[in-house]
Amino acid sequence: MAKILVVDDAEFLRVRISKMLSGEGHDILEAENGLKAVETYKSSKPDLVLMDITMPEMDGLSALKEIKSFDPAARVVMLTALGQESVVLEAIKTGARDFVVKPFEKERVLGAIAKLLG
């Protein structure tokens, strides 16, 4: 299956997503902020990234821009809370391929991943 990087500052959410995806046969990497996400992306070259927008040290939008600057083909799905529509639009313009609104349904996350990994 795919190597997926899960990026969120909330540990419980990373664990929840990681368990869900590893249960589907994916290899999971985790990062707790955008800075770590960029480092992990560079060193591990995941097939896909699920990334929160609001995080300390480096937010998801900045991390997305950084990742896209050295890998224009990066497949990134943004995780967003309700009410962040303008940030989501900016993320899509920057190159995010999809977004999932929290609290999310398992089927929505798996569907976004399946669509991008095709």
Provide a descriptive summary of the structure in words:
- The chain is of the alpha/beta class and 118 residues long.
- It has one domain (3-117): Rossmann fold.
- Helices cover 47% and strands 20% of the residues.
- It is built from 5 helices and 5 strands, in the order E-H-E-H-E-H-E-H-E-H.
- A 5-stranded parallel β-sheet has the order 2-1-3-4-5, sandwiched between helices.
- Helix 3 packs parallel to helix 4 (85-94).
- The chain is globular.
- The model has no long low-confidence stretch (mean pLDDT 95).
Number of strands: 5
Given the C-alpha coordinates, what overall shape results?
globular
Low-confidence stretches: none
In the CATH scheme, the class would be: Alpha Beta
Going by helix content, strand content and strand pairing, the class is alpha/beta
Rg over CA atoms: 13 Å
Helix content: 40-55%
Continuous helix count: 5
Name the helix and strand elements from N-terminus to C-terminus, one letter apiece. Answer: EHEHEHEHEH
The named CATH superfamily: Response regulator
Tell me the number of structural domains.
Answer: 1
Intertermini distance: 11 Å
Question: Which sequence of strands runs across the widest sheet?
Answer: 2-1-3-4-5
Strand content: 15-25%
Name the CATH architecture: 3-Layer(aba) Sandwich
Biggest beta sheet attributes: 5 strands, parallel
Report the mean per-residue pLDDT as an integer.
Answer: 95
Output the CATH topology.
Rossmann fold
